């Protein structure tokens, strides 16, 4: 199985996003569509690693905002780096053959850096270039899970 660990803020929204969700910046439909296309071409599943996963109705929230491919969310480990939450999820899911982390924060573990794709809230979130890089990542050495 292929998995995309997905952050929302700075990935599916950016400085140009006008949509609002519960009083905060929402999800940009253009960026959600870009993710949907990436999910389609890579056959990847999506695991929510964003703080949006704290929403008790996170699945409905993602569905309402057209975020596709969701199968789960990472565990909450208070005061721990996001990379540790991702690492724990991966440890519990040995069926994952390859993964990508799309996030605008840099609190990943050293061994995750080859699977990490950094976006920027100030540079348009999930750009076409980053989406292409993620697609290439999944197509390179297919079946080889990056070591953790």
* CATH architecture annotation: 3-Layer(aba) Sandwich
Domain module tally: 1
Radius of gyration: 14 Å
CATH class: Alpha Beta
Strand order of the largest sheet: 5-4-1-6-7
How far is it from the N-terminal to the C-terminal residue, by CA? 16 Å
Which term fits the overall shape? globular
Provide the succession of SSEs: EEEHEHEHEEH
CATH superfamily: HAD superfamily/HAD-like
Average pLDDT: 92
Judged by helices, strands and strand pairing, the structural class is alpha/beta
Q: How many β strands by DSSP?
A: 7
Low-confidence stretches: none
Largest sheet: 5 strands, parallel
Per the CATH scheme, the topology name is Rossmann fold
Strand content bin: 15-25%
Q: How many DSSP helices?
A: 4
Could you explain how this protein is built, in words?
- By secondary structure, this protein is an alpha/beta fold.
- It has one domain: 3-Layer(aba) Sandwich (Rossmann fold).
- 29% of the residues lie in helices and 18% in strands.
- The strands form two sheets. Strands 5-4-1-6-7 form a five-stranded parallel beta sheet, covered by helices on one side. It has a two-stranded antiparallel sheet with strand order 2-3.
- Helix 1 (29-42) runs parallel beside helix 4.
- The longest helix has 14 residues, at 29-42.
- The chain starts with a strand and ends in a 9-residue tail after the last helix.
